[in-house]
Amino acid sequence: MKVLAINGSPRARGNSDILCDEFLRGAEDAGHQIEKISLRDKRVSPCQACYACFKTGFCVQKDDMDEILDKVQNADVLVLASPTYFLTMSGQMKIMIDRFLPKWQELGAKEAYVIVTGHDGKHGLKRTAEDLSAILENLGLPVRTIIWAEHVWQKGEVLGTKAMDEAYCAGKNIGK
Ligand SMILES: Cc1cc2nc3c(=O)[nH]c(=O)nc-3n(C[C@H](O)[C@H](O)[C@H](O)COP(=O)(O)O)c2cc1C
User: In the CATH hierarchy, which top-level class contains the domain 2-172?
Assistant: First the structure.
C-alpha cells in the first residue's frame, strides 16, 4: 500500500517529525511504499473561500497544494501528525486541511492515523486528537489509531517513550 504521512510541525527533527519517521519505518518494514510531506517545506496559502473550486474542481491559488492533494488522493493510508498549539492542531495543518476543499468528496477510501504531540498530558492533547479525527472521519477516512506523545516539549524528547513503539507498531500493522 502507499502510505503518506503529513507532518504539520515547523520543526525539522521535532517530535512529530520523529514519530512520522518511526511510523513510516514500521510501514516500510511491512513492505509498504512510504512518503512523508513536511508542511514546513511547502508553500500552502489559506483558503480564500471564493468557491471557484466548486465549479472547476481546482483551486485558483497556484502553490504546493495541487501536489499535496494529488499525493493524498493517491495514497491508501494517510497519517496526519501535528503538535498541539494552544490546545489544538498547528495552523500549518489546519490551513492545509482547509485546502482539501476542491477534492473533499474525492479523497478515496483510505485508512487514517493521527499522531499528536505536546507538553501536556492526554487531557491537554485531547482536542488536537479529536479535531483531527473528526475531520478525517468527516472526509470519509476512518481513523484506525491515535498515537499520543504526551509530555514532550523540546525537540527529540519523544525518543525513548512508548509513543515511539506505538508509532512503529501502527505502521507495521497497517492492513492487518
Ligand atoms: C505556539 C505554541 C503553542 C503550544 N501550545 C501547546 C498546548 O496548548 N499544549 C501543549 O501540550 N503543548 C503546546 N505547545 C508545545 C508543543 O506542542 C510541543 O513542543 C510539541 O512537542 C511540538 O511538536 P514538534 O516537536 O513536532 O514541533 C505549544 C508550542 C507552541 C510553539
Answer: alpha beta
